[in-house]
Every structure is written in structure tokens, then in C-alpha cells.
Amino acid sequence: MSRTDYLFTSESVSEGHPDKVCDRISDAVLDAFLAEDPYSRVACETFATTNRVVIGGEVRGPQSVIDRVEDIARDCVRDIGYEQDGFHWANMSVDNYLHEQSAHIAQGVDAGEQKEEGAGDQGIMFGYAVDETDALMPAPIQYAHAILRRLAEVRKSGAEPELEPDAKSQLTVRYENGRPVGVTSIVLSHQHRSEDLSADQMREIVAPYITEVLPEGWITPETEWWVNPTGKFVIGGPDGDAGLTGRKIIVDTYGGAAPHGGGAFSGKDPTKVDRSAAYAARYLAKNVVASGLAKRCTIQLSYAIGVAKPLSIYADTYGTGQVDEAQIERAIASVMDLTPRGIREHLQLNKPVFQRTAAYGHFGRAPDADGGFSWEQTDLVEALKKAV
Asked: Is the dihedral of CA 83, 150, 348, 46 positive or negative?
């Protein structure tokens, strides 16, 4: 029997976190390729440290994009806001080691005249949705993201000039009868400009914005605040700690509230099912919950490299389903083509829409008019209801 009264904690990191700087650059490179050739193949990894960015990986696409990689990286770092002695968009070194995709990988992925396009790798992917927030996301990760997104807004607008780009948030949410009802602790470590700024002064700056984004009544006199608990946080970003693409996969997804297949997203074109099938699984789980078929749902998909059809489809509704999970699994297979090509075409993923996913979560965001976050739509509701 599942617990109904408990505490659950999730964390988020800002766009200025070293790993997120790298995710942003990798996805910006991907978008640049897709903008010029929607069928580009990209697996781009980024490493960042003090005043240096190193970019490498396998690509197949226009040489003109490879030639612009240094400018792409500098534009990302400038937009994030790094103009510090140890990491500055204008004077950091940028090393570009992108090279041609392996022909052995390509032969399994590209569709020939006689066969369907195969998956770009083997693996398992999970999607999740729950009805505890409007976005059908777990509350701890959704609000941990919201805090940092709001602080980034006031930092970039100039409203809070003391704030610098690097930050981490963490929320412990209290559940009663299986529903989120309050926050027992708030942890925020935020880089700042002044050497003599105290933790208490930082709390005075950030507390109004945190209170603004959390539901009314969730913060109480018993809520514990831990703002810059180690004290000073002036040296941050890649100057303070090295960054690497793909190291924040739990932040990117469900904050630990659901399983994760293990594959990172950023820098990978949508033939890589690590990314596209995880988006598809979220899309399906969200539509299952939005349709009222369950209050909570996990979907797992599995693939083999070079094979188009998913090897398995699994659904778990944690005892909240209105129909049997096997019916949901059959319905899913009937309402969406889950081959790599089918996913890309259904969600329109061959577009330059990925850079915006690199910070504040790949899920729980509003769909954009240009096709960004298309996997957050709930347009399968009626089809699923009919299919079960």
C-alpha cells in the first residue's frame, strides 16, 4: 500500500550552473544545424571550465554551422550573463572538435529504400505525469524550477543587480493524503556580486520572489530557510566548478519522482530515442492523466539500435487508473506511431526548438506556437478515451 503522508524533495539548477551552460551550448549547436538542414545528425557534447569551453562530438550537416560553433558558444554565454574575470563570453577560449558521424551508426539509423528508419541507440525511456499541478508535473520539481526561473528574470531585467547567473534551489514538499500541501524547507544557493553580502541579506533579496511563485499558504512560520548556507558565493559558474553536457538528467525530468532511463537529452538530434522517445513517453503519460484515465501515470518505452518498432510499451497507473494498464498500453500503440520517424513527425521535432529546453526542465512547460514543447500538448485526450 502506497504512503499518503510524507515529505519529498527535488532540486533545480539555473541556466548559469556549469552543467547547464554546457547543455545550453550543445542544444544551441543542435538548433543551428536543424535550422539549416532539418535532417542533420547531431551528438554534441560541451565541457566548460575557467575561461575555456571545449565542444566535441559527431555531426552530419552543413559545414557552415561547424564554422560558426565558436560564435554560437559565445552568444550562449553572453545571454546567460557571464562577464566575470574567470568566465567571460568575450575572452574565453573555445575549442571545436566536432567531426563526421560514424558510418556504422548511420547505417543503422538512416532509412533505406527497403526499410524503416531505425532507432539511434538501444535504451529505455520513461515518461510521467501526475495531477498534483496544473502542468501535470510533480510539485517539488515544478516549483523548484519556478523559483530559479523567476530569479533569472529579475536578474536579467536589472531589477536585482546583486544576483549573478549560477544558482541551485531545493524544495521539500509535505504531502497529506497524497496531495502536496506545503513546504517544510527551502534551500537556495545563489551566486552574488558583492564580496560582503551576507546570507541574511541574500534572503531578503530572494524571499519575495520565492513567496510569489509558491502556492498561497505553502510557506508557514515552521518552514526552514537555507539561503547560501555556506556563506559567500561570489565565484560561480564554470570558474567555480567544471561543467559538462548531460549531468543534470533528474533536474531535466521529474526531480526523482519517477524513473529515468539514464540517457541525457541536450545536444542530441531527435533520431536519438534517448531524447525523442522520452518526450513521447511524457506526451503519452500526460495525455493519459489529462483524459482522466488515471491520476498518475508512468510510461516506459524500449528500443534497439537500428530497429524502428519499440520493443515494449509499459504503463503503470499506481492504482489510480480507471481502466486496466494493459488497455492503456494497447491504446497508446493505437493512437501514436512510436517509431523514431513517427515520433518526430507527430511531435514535429525536426525544428530548431531545443535550446529553450536546456534550463528549467524539459517537461511541465507550456507549448510554444512555433512547435517548441510540442510534447506538452494534450491533444490525444479524445483519441485515448475512444481507444480504451
From this structure: positive
Strands (E) across the chain are located at: 6-13, 41-49, 52-60, 83-84, 87-88, 93-100, 123-130, 163-176, 179-192, 224-227, 243-244, 296-303, 312-316
Cell of 312: 515494449
The pTM assigned to this predicted structure is 0.95
Catalytic residue among 41, 174, 192, 248: 248
| Residue 168 bears catalytic tag | yes
Query: Residue 248 carries which DSSP code?
Result: -
Q: Is 58 a catalytic residue?
A: yes
Q: Which residue among 20, 41, 155, 356 is the active-site one?
A: 20
Give catalytic status of residue 232 as yes or no.
no
**10 Å Cβ neighbour count for 334?**
13
Marked catalytic residue, from 11, 45, 117, 166: 45
User: How confident is the model over 109-135, as a mean pLDDT?
Assistant: 80
Q: What is the pLDDT of residue 1?
A: 55
Q: How confident is the model over 272-309, as pLDDT tens digits? A: 999 999 999 999 999 999 999 999 999 999 999 889 99
Residue 160 annotated among the catalytic residues of the structure: no
Is 386 an annotated catalytic residue? no
Q: Catalytic site residue 242?
A: yes
